[in-house]
Design a protein that fits this description.
single chain, 115 residues, mainly beta, seven-stranded mixed beta sheet, four-stranded antiparallel beta sheet
Length: 115
Amino acid sequence: QVRLVESGGGLVQAGGSLRLSCAASGTTTSGKALGWYRQAPGKQRELVAQIGIGDSTNYADSVKDRFTISRDLLKNAVYLQMNSLNPEDTAVYYCSVKVGWYTYWGQGTQVTVSS
């Protein structure tokens, strides 16, 4: 059974940094597309960053040059380094992994950025 567990969220002041982690079990992160998404209150879930099978990356325009997605094959985990945070980044952040045709999701971790 595939399970994703996010951690690293919290409360941070504007301009600060956080590093989100997502530990995977029941599947390997190697050779799979991984992603970070976020959902703010009253808004739809949106893509933040993706890392592809060949480690190519893709970012939402709003987080380019501030966020970095990476994976650690030994730890079977994916990370999201978030710098220069602003209040608009406040949301629940979810990691995802695509296994075949199915996408699995974690339970999410709250990120709150105060002004």
